[in-house]
Amino acid sequence: MPATDLGGRKYGIVVVGASGFTGTLISTYIAANLPTDLKWAITGRSQARLDKLAAKLRQDYPDRVQPELEVVSPDDAKTLGEVIGKAKVCISIVLYHEDGEKVVRACIEQRTDYVDSAAVPNLFKEWIEKYHQQAQENGVALIHSCGVMSAEMDLFAIHGAEQIARKWSAKMGSMTLRAEDQGANVSGGTMRTMLSFAGAGPKAMAAAGDPSFLTPVPYTKPIQAQSGSHKHPILGLLASSSPTADQARALINRTWGLLGGPEGSWGPNFQYNEYERAPSYLGAVGQRFRCYIIVTMLSLVQYPWFKNLLMRSAPESGAGPTEEQRKAMPFAAAAFIEADPAVKENRGKGCLINFSYKDGAYPLSALITSQAAATLLYDRHLSAGIKGGCLTAGVLGPDFVERVKQGGLEIETTMIEN
């Protein structure tokens, strides 16, 4: 549906939390890449920080419509609602455990579509229970977890499902993702989000790894994941050392369920497993040890003294890796998606997909989030007849993949047989 059919609102997009670290990257990406006649706004608590960001955008991108500035605190529900009600799509880049729910609620009330990068399964589940039905009834699409290491799985799956269906008229079987080491440099907001998730305790973290944790349709297929290290015939040597692999599965399984579960376009035998590239078998042991240390530290965050200790060493909120640090760690990931092997003719067939982005993971998050908002604004054709609700990037469909590709993500696809 074209943006002009979405109602006579002042703004196409409003970025809430624009002057923070990721919010600044998103605002810069919008200015550099979305249509120059887009009417948009940036919001935050500080007039001075918004003025500084606006001046930089005006200097670097003088040929486009400049964003209007809206000073608002998420605690001011009335003003927040008024600002969000002026826009067709809201991008929320706030501290989700503190202010995220306030933005979600305002978007539902104002019937404004929404995108965030809150890849926290426990928080997502809470919002689903509180707001999914109301968002459905209001026809509001709430696209959650739309950043790196959350939306990228959906991008792989959307693209892979389309390629496999086109080539062999098949549905998907197992999807194996190979992640690359992205380094230890995280933003202050990311660190605080991680600590809020871990602060719920080991039991809550383990519950978030249940394959059915977020699904509207129970996921009953046994998980066939490899532990330790193993050599994949296409992806090479892999280590089961990703601390968030189980939570990533919970997120992508929500997409599988939203699209119809066993009867949907991804099929009854879809399964997601995530690993890290291992340089050697000895290196895989080191990666597993690192993963163990991370998980152990996160389990201790439930104790205030340890959480306070980590917070003292964390970057300030609004701070993050420098441009040099980001570019020193370009983003790369690959996935092999097999055609459903339950059908004899499909066996040995699959799709290898490589993603790469030279500017690094945080700028890629800005790209994905911004293009998700643009998809809602310009190409709002949600999959499986979905009208609204607490959703994932996977329901945005092939239009979203194409926008991300045109926006700068390099996608290389190889169809494999035998």
From TrEMBL:
Membrane-spanning residues: 12-32
The Saccharopine dehydrogenase NADP binding domain, residue ranges: 13-142
Keyword Transmembrane helix annotated: yes
Kinase as UniProt keyword: no
A Pfam family this chain is assigned to: Sacchrp_dh_NADP
Keywords assigned: Membrane, Transmembrane, Transmembrane helix
GO cellular component, one term: lipid droplet
A biological process from GO: glycolipid biosynthetic process
Similarity comment: Belongs to the saccharopine dehydrogenase family.
Name this polypeptide is given: Saccharopine dehydrogenase NADP binding domain-containing protein
Taxonomic source organism: Clonostachys solani
Lineage of origin: Eukaryota, Fungi, Dikarya, Ascomycota, Pezizomycotina
